[in-house]
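Predict structure. Chain length: 268.
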Amino acid sequence: MEDGKKRLSPVLITGGTVLISAAAVFFVHPLLSAAVLSLYVGVCVASCFFPQTNFLGPVIHRGRTGKNVVALTFDDGPFEATTEKILALLDRHDAKATFFVSGVNAARCPNLIRELIRRGHTIGNHSMSHDPFLMLKGSRTLQREVVEAGEVLRKMGIDALAFRPPVGIVNPKLFPILKAEGLFCVTFSCRARDAGNRRIRNLSGRILQKIKGDDIVLLHDRPRQGSDDPDVLWNEMEKILAGIRARGLKIVPLAELAGRDIMRLKSL
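Prediction complete.
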């Protein structure tokens, strides 16, 4: 709802138009009607993988400040083995980030959640279990994943307002659930396709070659996956943070790019 008026999403507006069109052409040729409906279904499926189109619902995937600023986001944590080291790196570069945490990991590492807050970072909802196939599940499962993760954080005094879907995929059922829970969807505009720190070689190069102002950068704070030297991940993270500044960009809190609060702290 905006300015007191309800706004229909593009998928609903388009769906109504398609149904009317399909009904109209049915009497001309039934197969043509089926083709129109099939095209609409295809567009809906494709939009799940390209949420930045906002076709299925409102998604913040980059800023609109017009400034040379970027926001760093870390998904999947927190993890004792990696999150603390990332916090130390961010401190050295005087950078604030948003951590989209799973409910399971947050409940397992409450000390890290408190430390994230203490150091001035923000926290978002990344579902309860981070199931990569979550968007293929039914509405009840989807709602449970969103709500339970939010409840874990609220018990720690955090009211997460931003939700990032696992692997950045959405579906039409997600947006009514987010609206009912008072959440909004945030994805990203710059990523290295690191497969959750499985491809960390030249991670910095893949980010820095395309990063630009108003980008929301996707990184991960989960332990490295594979047999690479453990120092590779930290060297790549250091290069990213130094390289952003070298390109004349400033790291700012995600809230500045999103134009709204990412979380609220609650008194327990």
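Summary: The longest strand covers residues 69-75.
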